[in-house]
Amino acid sequence: DSGVTQTPKHLITATGQRVTLRCSPRSGDLSVYWYQQSLDQGLQFLIQYYNGEERAKGNILERFSAQQFPDLHSELNLSSLELGDSALYFCASSFAGDTEAFFGQGTRLTVV
Amino acid sequence: GIQVEQSPPDLILQEGANSTLRCNFSDSVNNLQWFHQNPWGQLINLFYIPSGTKQNGRLSATTVATERYSLLYISSSQTTDSGVYFCAVARNSGNTPLVFGKGTRLSVIA
Predict the structure, then answer these.
(1) What count of CB pairs under 8 Å joins A to B?
(2) What is the pLDDT of residues A29-81, one digit of tens each?
(3) Is the pLDDT of residue B94 over 70?
(4) Rounded to 5 degrees, what angle do the CA atoms B89, A67, A55 make?
């Protein structure tokens, strides 16, 4: 158990819908990262928050947004979903960028 | 951005064999991690190793930061070692996210 909790584990939804993925970081970690892994692909960085503020942005679509709340949990919102958004979405946390990052079990999103 | 290249892309081993996986990166880093993604999709931390050498059981890793590469050694491989091994690095410029290589897919055959 990495200490990073992601919910839900699985999600099936229809095209055009909106979903919210939730992440609770390890106790004491200030940074939260979101990654997307499509079928047989590597992990693509989406966005990073540090202590409530956006720190870095990667290949995140405009239909996607995220935030980190005062209790440091984070949510990733995916809207106007398309078939191509089907993927495994990971959240990771670390104390800072140069410290070890730990990943949650992921949310497997299927858009039908 | 920083580039991360892993080799080989695929590897098939007989149970009991040894292997070396390589990770090359294009810039100075302050974080380098090796992960194992098991067949269920879980990402398991293997090593946090921005420099130096570490060992954990049958696995060991070495990072030569000045030459911008890292090696992961797997000895006496077992079928449970199958999966994808990822190297990920963060640039040495503050609080930056990990950038992943494309991984090495390892299959260990009994």
Answers:
(1) 62
(2) 999 999 999 987 789 999 999 999 999 999 899 999 999 999 999 999 999 99
(3) no
(4) 40
Q: Contacts of residue B3 in chain A, CB cutoff 8 Å? A: none
Distance CA A51, CA A67 (A): 11
**Mean pLDDT score across all residues of chain A:** 95
How far is residue A52 CA from its own chain's centroid? 15
8 Å CB contact of A45 and B99: yes
The candidate with the shortest Cα–Cα distance to A88, out of A15, A25, A19, A39, is: A39
Q: What mean pLDDT is predicted for residues A78-104?
A: 94
Residues B30 and B44 sit within 8 Å (Cβ to Cβ)? no
* A37 → chain B, closest CA residue: B41
State the smallest CA–CA distance between residue B46 and chain A in angstroms: 11
Q: Is the pLDDT of residue B107 over 80?
A: yes
What distance in Å separates residue B109's CA from the closest CA in chain A? 21
Structural contact between residues A86 and A74, judged by C-beta atoms closer than 8 angstroms: no
